[in-house]
Amino acid sequence: MSWLWSEILIKSTMASAIRDVFVAVSKNEVAAVRLGTTSAVDLSLQIPIPMFLMSIPGQKERSMPGLLITSANPFVDEEGNPDPSNLDKNFALLLLDDEEKIINELQTENLELSHALLECIRMNKPTLSFQQVAQTEKCELNTLLMLSQHLIYWRKAIAIPPIHPREMYIVNPNCDSHQLPAASVAWRKAFPLAPSLPHFLSAISHAPRPYKTFFPSKNHRETYLDMLAWLIRNGWVTQLRTFAWITVWPEIIYEVSYQLKSECVAKKKEKAGKSSSGLQNTSSGSAESTEESGSDKAKEYDPNAPMTTEQAAERARLERLAIKAAEADAEEAAEFSKMPLPVLTHNVSVNKAAHLKGIHPYIIPDPHKVSHKESLYIAAIAKRFEDKRMKEMWWRFYGYLNGREALEMVVLKEGMKRKDAWALLVGMQEHMMVVKHW
Questions:
Q1: Where are the domains of the chain?
Q2: How far is the CA of 349 from the CAs of 353, 423, 426, 430, 431, in angstroms?
Q3: pLDDT, tens only, 358-402
Q4: What's this model's pTM, rounded to 2 decimal places?
Q5: Distance between CA atoms of residues 411 and 406, nearest Å
Q6: Is the Cβ–Cβ distance between 92 and 129 less than 8 Å?
Q7: What is the three-class DSSP state of 437?
Q8: Residue 44 — φ and ψ, nearest 5°?
Q9: How far apart are alpha carbons 265 and 341 in whole angstroms?
Q10: C-beta atoms surrounding 356 within 10 Å
Q11: For residue range 319-356, what is the model confidence (pLDDT) as tens digits?
């Protein structure tokens, strides 16, 4: 029987292809096969696997140790919803193997896209976003994204937020510690002068800080960025990202409440004035009308005519309601007059004024879906920035403060220098609740 199978595999390219596909897929690898038809057909088959996880698997979920854990999803549409067909231009390409090895594989395959993919590999760097690469190399962004997506799909690369010396990185919570001995050997081979892998991971996990603080000197920058790329590629570290929500302090809550009550009292006064004026005009108009139509006794209105019981009861009820409403309005106006005027301070978070007691800070969950009062909070915060540029940038940045947009990506999305953007965000930090996680 084994002889028969061997003969079948030699004579049938279909049988050989089926065997290769089965062997590769059972090892969770990509199967590359060629069918010897009239014109040879090359196929690459795989069962797609995730390149990263957005959360740690639960007790009832399949564990996948060694995969990168990050909330940074490179495949989203313009509204932030998952979209496998749309690669975010603000991400960067990180090869999953040695560059020379991938290049040799593409040259050996010599497929239709091989030359374009080689050029894509040459241009892309894990330190530059796709948009930055397109601008630097003066190439078409959509073409670059298409080729990069091809490399990602066939497990040659992954998309990550561009690595940068100023960012923070931590040990990947999903790293496979059982692979540490073998990984240490590979690390030593790749970076013979670097600290040992366990020592370096220990230093990174001790206290998160900007990655550049690990550089012995500026001359080590490129080497240490290569080391970081190796660690991310092999699932040992992930980026510690910054997220924020808008915090509304009691001073601002009180100011907006005062503003709304002031408008309400003013409207009621205006309404009461119009009602009083309307009644006077109505009475005057009735008298004039009566005089003008004195000759027409049938149509003349007699104010002294007796009312029915129902009419009298209704009139009394309306008068009681009017008196009650007027008393309530007067009471509300009196209470409002006793409220202290809002005072704008430079540090709203430390305002301990007596009239603010009992008012607790408020978090706006999503600045894109706000109530009228929340929109007033946002406008009131803008008034606190005396610097014109800070005020302009608040209106430009506040939409990112939703707990889902990493502030590290804001720099790329807004096309600003990292140092300038972070300086502005630091200036706004009193009005933000900040958290850090992957």
A1: 2-45, 67-162, 169-224, 361-437
A2: 11, 20, 15, 7, 8
A3: 899 999 999 999 999 999 999 999 999 988 999 999 999 999 999
A4: 0.77
A5: 10
A6: yes
A7: strand
A8: -125, 120
A9: 15
A10: 16
A11: 777 777 766 766 766 676 777 888 888 889 998 888 88
